[in-house]
Every structure is written in structure tokens, then in C-alpha cells.
Amino acid sequence: MNIIQRNFYKLIRIGLFDQQELVEPMSAFKWGKLHQLAMVHNMVKPVYQGLQKSKHQFFLNLTDKQWQVWEKTMKEYQEPADSDEDAFLSPDHLTNPVLNIKLQSILDDETSNMATRQMLLIIIRIARHILNEGMPVKELSELGLCLSQKDKQIDYPILRKWLKSIGFLQMAQLEGSLLIHLFRFEESEIPFLDGHIYNKVEKVALELTEFSNTHIEDFTFSQDAESIFVHTSNSSAVLGHICRSARYFRYLPSETVTNFFATFARSLRKIEE
Known about the structure:
The chain has about 270 residues and is mainly alpha-helical. The chain is built from 12 helices and 2 strands; from the N terminus they run H-H-H-H-H-H-H-H-H-H-E-E-H-H. Helices cover about 60% and strands about 0% of the residues.
């Protein structure tokens, strides 16, 4: 992880979780890159809060112009609204029809704990983001906040039962490991871990970061008017999606396979006629 990414996560931990951190010295150019990173991951507000709480630190050497850029960004920035495209990543349904039936049964049970269902949906959203988008910084921060603020309201034995029934337990444990690595959570703060912390989570975090700029929209299919052949707009994105699906198959086998084919079918539906 490079210095820009390290300071990015430090500022999130400071701004969102009130952790005590010392930012590392960076050039004005790199601080500009960190601003872009906050925009890409929709983490403008937490990072700005971290900057405000750290502004008296010696190594936080933002220029007056850079502070003005952040203040302008805070005034004008609006988080992207959900769209039809985002519905593909919705956590309230799964691409595997068998697992989706089980999930809908869980969600339709109005007698179950609301906070527990909310955490289940956050865990699913993170998994969908990992498979299709890359590093789920915003979603992981939401999971961290849910753990911090609603810990006593969540029925963890029931949550583990639900996760196991839809095949998400290993993926949830990976997500918990990422919280420990990126946001410095303690193992005891993540009850659904059950002692399963992945040793290679740092490598996973780096891989997900590399994938963050490759979205599912990056490979679509089109067909020339004078040709019967269908071609892809981005063959490297297709290969990347295949590799990603293979890499995370061990954490979420059933949903990973159907998610890939759902992505493929969704792209085929976009063929330009």
C-alpha cells in the first residue's frame, strides 16, 4: 500500500471512527491524488472530517488553496444516487436462484431482528461490490459503523445461521478481516469472525484496489450493422472479471459463478442494434 492509500485510510479512521492516527508527510501533488481517491470511493465527507480533526498535525501540510478545494468539494459534492445500473448490485437479491429463495425467506420474516437483517444486507452488498467493482471502501465503512453503533442490537447467532444458509459465511469472514486490516478493528469487535482471520488479507486488499477502476460497465458487447459477429468493448475487462471470479470463488462459490454469468448476460442485453 502506497503512502497516498495509507493516509487515505488513516483519515477515514480518524474522521469516521475517532481513532488516533498520525498522517504521513506528502507533497501537494500527492494530497491532490488523495482528494481524487476520496471522490472515486465516495468518501469525501469522512476524509474531510479526518482532515479537520488532524489539521494541527505537523505533517498535514495542505496549502490554503487545497483547503479551499476541499471546502468547495464539501459544499458541492453529492453522493451518486442509485440508478437502474446500481440495481444489479442490490443486496436484497442474489443471482443464485436457490440462495435467493432462502434470502427472500429471511427478509420476509418480519418477526426477525431489523438490525440483524440490516447487517446481513450490508455484508451482501460488500460481497457484490468485491465481485463486480473492486475495493468496497464505503460499504466496509458502513459495516464498521453498524458494528460500532448497533452491536448490542444484533443477534449474532442468528446472523451466523443466515450467513451459513446462503453460503456467505466465508465471505463475511473475509470482510471482517478487511475491517481489521484497513480500519484497525479488533477481532473481538467482529463477532461473526469466529476466529477466522485471513492471513493474506493484505494481498486481497491490494488486488481489490487494483480492480477498483474496472467496473462492470467496462465490458459490454456490441454488433456492427453489417456483421453477424458480436465483439466486446474491452477484452481485458472481460479477462479481469473472469480472474476476479476465480480468485474469490473459494469465499463465495455458488454466488460467484452465477454472478459472473449474470454479468455476462447483462452485458449481452446491451448489444447495440
